[in-house]
Inverse folding.
């Protein structure tokens, strides 16, 4: 077959229709057309059509990934799952991820550090909560642990937990001044646990609720 016409798609700017021997054979992006250097008069057989399809699939996967990344930074697992959801093939997905890594648009370590920095700025919490959140987002455990270690290197978890405890107790007393200390300790322990602090940090703090209350 020989390409007899290449024309712009009316409803989709940036895409082209390819005709061979007067018959429509494929719709592709302008980028794919340029990448494969296809022109009117070129021969196009089954092998060339297979390459055309593969190139177009890869283009589609990359564009889908870039759109997904445009709203906020993502982990590699998030992007992979999104492309699988859109039913791209494994080869196109892995090639897309590799290209994004090489261009610096996909970096789980940088993502983890940014996430931790923002989380600690907006709402101080302990290591355990950050580990759980990063795991849910798909950050590999070693990457997350290293980023957390670095973030907490100059931070005293006990001091942060004590500050949060003081705020919690102050609000609790404002609502109910006569709440029994034992009940307040249980609620405070649960609160600090939800915020990701380990028991060895929580225990000495809740033992001194009356001191915090002063």
């Amino acid at each position: 077959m020989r390409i007899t016409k290449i024309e712009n798609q009316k409803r989709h700017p940036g895409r082209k229709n390819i005709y061979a021997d007067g018959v429509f054979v494929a719709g592709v992006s302008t980028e794919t057309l340029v990448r494969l250097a296809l022109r009117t008069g070129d021969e196009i057989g089954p092998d060339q059509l297979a390459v055309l399809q593969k190139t177009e699939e890869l283009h589609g996967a990359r564009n889908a990934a870039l759109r997904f990344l445009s709203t906020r930074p993502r982990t590699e697992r998030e992007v992979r799952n999104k492309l699988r959801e859109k039913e791209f093939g494994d080869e196109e997905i892995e090639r897309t991820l590799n290209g994004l890594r090489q261009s610096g648009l996909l970096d789980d370590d940088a993502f983890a550090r940014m996430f931790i920095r923002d989380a600690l700025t907006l709402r101080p919490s302990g290591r355990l909560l950050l580990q759980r959140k990063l795991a849910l987002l798909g950050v590999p455990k070693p990457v997350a642990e290293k980023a957390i270690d670095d973030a907490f290197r100059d931070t005293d978890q006990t001091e942060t937990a004590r500050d949060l405890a003081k705020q919690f107790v102050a609000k609790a007393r404002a609502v109910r001044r006569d709440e029994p200390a034992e009940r307040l300790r249980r609620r405070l322990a649960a609160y600090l646990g939800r915020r990701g602090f380990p028991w060895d940090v929580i225990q000495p703090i809740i033992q001194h609720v009356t001191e915090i209350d002063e």
